[in-house]
Sequence to fold (347 residues):
Amino acid sequence: MLKFWKKKNSPSPAHASETDAEGGRPDPGADDDNATASTASGQRDWRGRLSTSGIARGLGGLFRRNPKLDDALLDELETVLLTSDAGVTASTALVDRLRQRMNKREFADAAALRRALREDLVGILEPVAVPLDIQAHTPFVMLVVGVNGVGKTTTIGKLAHRYREQGRSIMLAAGDTFRAAAVEQLKTWGERNRVPVIAQGQGADSASVIFDAVQGANARRVDVLIADTAGRLHTQGGLMDELGKIARVIRKIDEQSPHEVLMVIDGTTGQNAVNQVRQFHQAIGVTGLVVTKLDGTARGGVVFALAREFGLPIRYIGLGEGSADLQPFDAAAFVDSLLPDSDDRQP
Ligand SMILES: Nc1nc2c(ncn2[C@@H]2O[C@H](COP(=O)(O)OP(=O)(O)OP(=O)(O)O)[C@@H](O)[C@H]2O)c(=O)[nH]1
Ligand SMILES: [Mg+2]
Fold:
């Protein structure tokens, strides 16, 4: 059974009292993301939302249009992968391998090739489906980075919601001091989840806000501190310098921190996402990714391109704007949502 299908065992939000947010310990029975658990309805939800992505529509239609096992099927598969942002390297390697196997008559029919394709797609993603272990340090300091508008602040709100539901104490740091609205947006998420937000307002020094927040989180023995950062400054070089400064400053408190540099990628960005990750990774050393906006019109293949190109863990995917629309990344569940084992299960 897929671990994703397991019934969620976390306490209901009603159990997560105010005390938890202010420094209570996690409920030992609470679920953690190593279990990658969710409800069966969550699984249906995943499939429903991902089915609108370009790659899901492309792969679904592909086998309907090409019921026969032949070169036309593989040519079209390559086109589907390339046009859904899976990248040239991943797409050609996958198709070449399937073609070799087809020529060796390893597949009896198109359904057998479909099964092999599913296995290969899972094989690309499995190594990067590494859950985030927020119990590795206390407080666990997380820096959320990425270019503007990708969904950083929203993802922080969703993470706060998720960890609160697990009974953990959380603190947020409004490190995006570029826009006043950014601080307000984070405060709204904080209020919604009854989580304290450390802020100094627009124009403050981002590193100093985050430094104060890390000190506060240490003093209060908070489980998780999540720091928002700006997606844009006057110059992109300035942004990288600022992120470097934040990391340097908080290392003065704990040289292992930040324990996670979580980079948020907008799933609708396409191949440009690969350049973004390269740039941020060089500047501050990204340790995990979140791919957002995979609901709706994202082409979705970028997840494969990122996995292939960097091998960085994909921690979560964003499937909507609500607090619960964040799922730990599960390779098999993801592939199953894009390409069910038969068209009968197509949503
Ligand atoms: N459909 C969908 N929309 C999302 C998702 N995540 C974020 N958004 C939306 O994307 C927009 C930008 O999100 P923000 O969280 O403000 O992005 P940001 O990276 O913090 O932006 P800056 O602070 O300007 O750098 C908002 O309208 C969000 O509601 C997602 O998974 N799905
Ligand atoms: Mg923001």
Observations:
- The beta strands are 140-145, 170-175, 197-198, 224-229, 260-266, 288-292, 314-318, 326-328.
- The chain has a mean pLDDT of 85.
